[in-house]
Prior knowledge:
globular; two-stranded antiparallel sheet; alpha/beta
Amino acid sequence: MGFPTFRIPAQAGIQGGEAPTSAPVALDPRLRGDTGGAFPQPSRHPGLDPGSRYLLTAEEEAGLRIKSGVTMGVARALTLATAAFALSGCVVAVGNQSPAAPVAPATVAGVPAGMQYLYGSGEAAAASRQAYSALVRYVQQYQRDRTTLRRMPLSAVLAPDATLAMPKQLACTGKAAVVFDVDETVLLNTGYEYSDARGGLSYDAARWERWERSDGRATRAVPGAVEGLAALRAAGVTVVFNTNRNAATAQYTENVLNRAGLGPAKHGETLFLKGDAPGGSGKDARRALIAAKYCVVALVGDQLGDFSDLFNAGLKPAERRAAADSPAIAPLWGNGWFVLPNPVYGTALAGDYDDVFPNDLRWSDPGARKE
């Protein structure tokens, strides 16, 4: 069965029938923060999928990385009050005009809170398994409907002329497939993040490439991924990976996926990498290549860019959240689009006090001692 398509009225940042746009803004190289009110330029960690308007040069991207809302290199210099919001996966822009947050530790035993959650908590394991169980049930039902109704449902991939207000989907042709992001979607980069956390390091492109070329011993599959992918393959569904790892290291990525029990993965067939199509770290061009070969039953990722580059096209954090929860997009979650948790890095970690805490959702403790 196809996904429902709705037209929504014009609203802040989402014009009815039109994709919101915004000019790119300059970025303070020390932070991935909101410097001009527009949606911040995302980190170029390979797990992310920013739109092409946010592409940076290798020189610009060196040293830029979000770690629970701030770069590791400056995290120690921030106040504990600011760092406290990393516990909830939120970024607090330096220099915002709202009152200071209560003092609370950003880490326990020196481990960044987002990493504690994603790589160490039972809650993250449960959330991941829940997502994979829902995915398998959905795809199995999709396959049954496709057989019994004798018609081809719509693809999970949006059409080239789609907007967030009108997320038109491609027609579905060919063999069924599910498309997965790799990093923090099927594969946890625990070893790389350990290196970052232990050394207080910021993202470095050369170091990441060395990680891509490693043997994968310090990675592990996301809980539920091995079983989920096996169940899909058993149902006759092709598993395809679409990742921002580099095409130059394709053989290493194939080996790491196979080692983790997630393969087979074959570059150009079931593995698509940055450099395989125009658009840099944007994934829409690669998704189009995949959709031309397969009926894409579902998309799975940890960033909104794993579903459409439209989410990274200049939206402010509040507008982006509204788009993801709009009547047009909301029905897709769990219904062709499946998202995994990632509070460690990414386009989700954005927003100042006013973005995260609207005026009508603030509380002051009447029992607090007045200074």
